[in-house]
């Protein structure tokens, strides 16, 4: 009760959409490759989802979540939390002079 009164007095609105649904929608777009505007209607509005994504990309939240999850998966597999090596691959295509 006290928090609701304080929140109202401070002008803090309760969240309109559950953050879990926001994250689920971001993951759905990432997994399917679909455009934001075609997000199914059972998710929060596409603009809302994109605004959260853009903010989290800008402030580094998505990178921190990725690093945390990668560390946990590696530890669950019995590996060091941080990788010790990386593999880079590149391909070049020669162009014929015209």
TrEMBL record:
<protein>
    <recommendedName>
        <fullName>Insertion element IS402-like domain-containing protein</fullName>
    </recommendedName>
</protein>
<dbReference type="Pfam" id="PF13340">
    <property type="entry name" value="DUF4096"/>
</dbReference>
<feature type="domain" description="Insertion element IS402-like">
    <location>
        <begin position="7"/>
        <end position="66"/>
    </location>
</feature>
<dbReference type="InterPro" id="IPR025161">
    <property type="entry name" value="IS402-like_dom"/>
</dbReference>
